[in-house]
């Protein structure tokens, strides 16, 4: 614990020296990496750190609201939220190709971040010179070992990928840490357990978990199913043993029966994986009784889903996400 407290104090000292009375910007998602980085920065320079949360319309249910509460109210981070749901969903209209979805979301995210930088400059008369990034050691290794496009399986969009044209100087407090060390650091800093133990969530969000076209209606269906599944994992005590858990909405309909009526609705699949590095993963052996509760709750409570499957594929050969 004291090792991590020292780590935090050292970083805070270092950053104060480096930044002086300058300003720093950073994108946050509410995930453990960006939360820990943002809280560290806030402890170092207070409101001269400007955090931006972009709501791309493909976040989990009430996610933007919850992140605002956790980061702004509880951790006092100077955080602004940009609700760009309509803009993202408008651009995603008719798009079904996974890589196109990623490119649209990544590109629009960068535009919005740049616009926010301009807004901070015009509203507050402040120019940010530095960019905070929650890069971890494995990200550093991965970008070194990925040699050219042949190695790229999916173009990952993360809150990290910001344009060189902004010419911001990078601050990466967690460059030497592994994920479990970031969690330790977060705990040592007194950040709430929910933030510290969250599963990773991809930058493109639910857009790559809605196979086929992403619409506001389908986002809502998936958000409801996802909420039930995560709640059930938490209450049954499995959440922390799992590396990542989520629901995927499939682009096909199946026949079912509800009361005396025939239904023709969507199929969804639950995916839970055990992993340490996310490079390989095994499907999690979730007990049948937990699956049974999930299944009956999702099918009864979510209008638009009448069948639930469990993904029993490991990585490789399957990837963790379906797109
Ligand atoms: P895959 O599907 O490649 O996922 O086995 C490995 C890990 O990466 C996450 N992932 C992403 N994260 N932007 C992100 O920030 C992305 O575009 C992206 N695609 C996949 C995935 O959730 C898993 O944790």
Plain-language structure description:
The chain is 42% helix and 19% strand. The protein has 2 domains: 2-196, 3-Layer(aba) Sandwich (Rossmann fold), CATH 3.40.50.620; 209-310, GMP Synthetase, Chain A, domain 3, CATH 3.30.300.10. Helix 3 links the parallel strand 2 and strand 3 (79-83). With 323 residues, it is an alpha/beta fold. Helix 1 crosses helix 7 (179-188) and helix 9 (216-235) packs antiparallel against helix 10. The longest helix has 27 residues, at 98-124. The strands form 2 sheets. Strands 3-2-1-4-5 form a 5-stranded parallel beta sheet, sandwiched between helices. The protein binds xanthosine-5'-monophosphate. The site of xanthosine-5'-monophosphate (XMP) has 15 residues, from loops. Residues 2-198 form the GMPS ATP-PPase domain. ATP binds at residues 29-35. Catalyzes the conversion of xanthine monophosphate (XMP) to GMP in the presence of glutamine and ATP through an adenyl-XMP intermediate. Pathway: Purine metabolism; GMP biosynthesis; GMP from XMP (L-Gln route): step 1/1.
């Amino acid at each position: 614990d004291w090792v991590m407290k020292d780590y935090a104090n050292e970083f805070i000292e270092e950053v104060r020296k480096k930044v002086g009375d300058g300003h720093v910007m950073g994108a946050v998602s509410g995930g453990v990496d960006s939360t820990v980085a943002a809280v560290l920065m806030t402890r170092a320079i207070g409101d001269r750190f400007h955090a931006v949360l972009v709501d791309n319309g493909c976040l989990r249910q009430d996610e933007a609201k919850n992140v605002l509460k956790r980061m702004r109210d509880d951790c006092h981070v100077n955080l602004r939220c940009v609700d760009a749901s309509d803009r993202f969903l408008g651009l995603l209209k008719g798009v079904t190709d996974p890589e196109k979805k990623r490119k649209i979301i990544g590109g629009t995210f960068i535009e919005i971040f740049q616009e926010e930088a301009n807004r901070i400059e015009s509203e507050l008369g402040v120019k940010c010179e530095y960019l905070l990034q929650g890069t971890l050691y494995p990200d550093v290794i991965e970008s070194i070992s990925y040699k050219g496009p042949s190695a790229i399986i999916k173009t990952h969009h993360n809150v990290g990928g910001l344009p060189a044209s902004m010419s911001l100087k990078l601050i990466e407090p967690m460059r030497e840490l592994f994920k479990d060390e970031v969690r330790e650091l977060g705990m040592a800093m007194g950040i709430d357990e929910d933030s510290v133990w969250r599963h990773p969530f991809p930058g493109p969000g639910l857009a790559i978990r809605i196979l086929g076209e992403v619409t506001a209606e389908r986002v809502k269906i998936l958000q409801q199913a996802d909420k039930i599944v995560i709640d059930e994992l938490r209450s049954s005590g499995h959440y922390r043993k799992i590396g990542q858990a989520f629901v995927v909405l499939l682009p096909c309909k199946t026949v079912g029966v509800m009361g005396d009526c025939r239904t023709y609705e969507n199929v969804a699949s639950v995916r839970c994986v055990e992993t340490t590095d996310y490079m390989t993963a095994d499907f999690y052996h979730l007990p049948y009784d937990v699956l049974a509760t999930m299944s009956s709750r999702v099918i009864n409570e979510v209008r638009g889903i009448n069948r639930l499957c469990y993904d029993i594929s490991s990585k490789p050969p399957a990837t963790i996400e379906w797109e």
